[in-house]
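R.M. (postdoc): so does anyone remember the format we settled on? I'll just put the structure tokens first.
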């Protein structure tokens, strides 16, 4: 299911992202590579230089392509939106703060083609909802009730005020993808960070190599090349350091098995210890690690059938 947010801040960030990628591609190819391969250049007859130019253009555009595809997947993919039940649920007792002595509700939770019907019997002491905050009730096994969405949500799901929905294993809302980073699109978000960082490193290396091969003797051409070179290095440093910081934070979050929302709210879930490889599989899927860097549809290790369990023991 494709999603797109109409958030103005997110749309502006999308335009900045694609503008920066397009400019980097144009400046590298037009002002760094092509001049070295031109007929008037003293190194034009060198086969190695022409081969370097051709290979560099192909590699750089392939990196840009993967960055764009992974970004689009992160932008348009469902991050793990918790569906709202088709049947309206009665949360009047929770809204008023009173506990009904006998609350019997039948509702249907529908998750990505998997439908499971649960019978809520809140009159039982071991499953009675516990009031936590104005908008959240905690149920058994980590399940909660979101009073904004008026729906039940699985463990580690949180409400996003921008998306106005609850997101499974929500990490944070990122304006750079105009979407939440959640259970189903965190893989694409990490891929976008990786390829953007790789493009930044490649751009800086291209600037250095191009000046070694083509110092430029003509003043006008030298000024133009210098201007674009400075702009490319500045852009690469800013975005490179930015994605490096976010990438390190994401990897740390995965290995600690704690999302950004959980860290801020200091929420603790009792989860069995797992290896780093298993934690990475939860994000990148069951496929071979060699496929983790490709922006392809993946088979998450926590499938709906595995992850949705009856928290009430009914």
């Amino acid at each position: 299911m494709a999603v797109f947010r109409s958030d103005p801040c997110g749309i502006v960030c999308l335009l900045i992202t694609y503008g920066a990628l397009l400019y980097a591609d144009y400046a590298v190819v037009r002002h760094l590579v092509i001049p070295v391969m031109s007929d008037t250049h003293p190194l034009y007859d060198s086969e190695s230089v022409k081969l370097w130019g051709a290979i560099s253009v192909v590699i750089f555009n392939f990196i840009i392509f993967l960055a764009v595809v992974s970004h689009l997947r992160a932008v348009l993919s469902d991050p793990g939106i918790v569906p709202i039940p088709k049947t309206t649920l009665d949360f009047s007792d929770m809204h008023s703060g009173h506990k009904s002595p006998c609350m019997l509700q039948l509702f249907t939770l529908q998750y990505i083609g998997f439908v499971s019907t649960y019978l809520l019997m809140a009159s039982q002491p071991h499953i009675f909802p516990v009031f936590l905050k104005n908008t959240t009730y905690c149920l058994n096994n980590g399940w909660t009730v979101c009073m904004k969405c008026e729906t039940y949500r699985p463990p580690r799901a949180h409400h996003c005020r921008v998306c106005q929905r609850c997101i499974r294993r929500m990490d944070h809302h990122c304006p750079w993808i105009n979407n939440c980073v959640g259970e189903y699109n965190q893989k694409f978000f990490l891929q976008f960070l990786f390829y953007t960082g790789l493009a930044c490193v490649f751009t800086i290396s291209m600037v250095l190599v191009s000046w070694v091969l083509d110092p430029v003797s003509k003043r006008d051409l030298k000024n133009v090349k210098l201007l674009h070179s400075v702009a490319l290095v500045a852009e690469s440093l800013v975005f490179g350091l930015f994605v490096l910081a976010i990438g390190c934070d994401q990897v740390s979050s995965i290995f600690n098995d704690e999302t950004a929302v959980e860290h801020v709210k200091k929420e603790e879930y009792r989860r069995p210890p797992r290896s780093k490889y298993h934690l990475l599989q939860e994000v990148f899927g069951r496929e071979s690690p060699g496929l983790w860097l490709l922006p392809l549809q993946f088979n998450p290790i926590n499938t709906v059938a595995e992850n949705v369990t009856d928290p009430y023991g009914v």
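R.M.: ...and that's the designed sequence above, right after the tokens. Also worth knowing: Residues 101-172 form one domain. Confidence is low (pLDDT under 50) at residues 94-137, 303-314.
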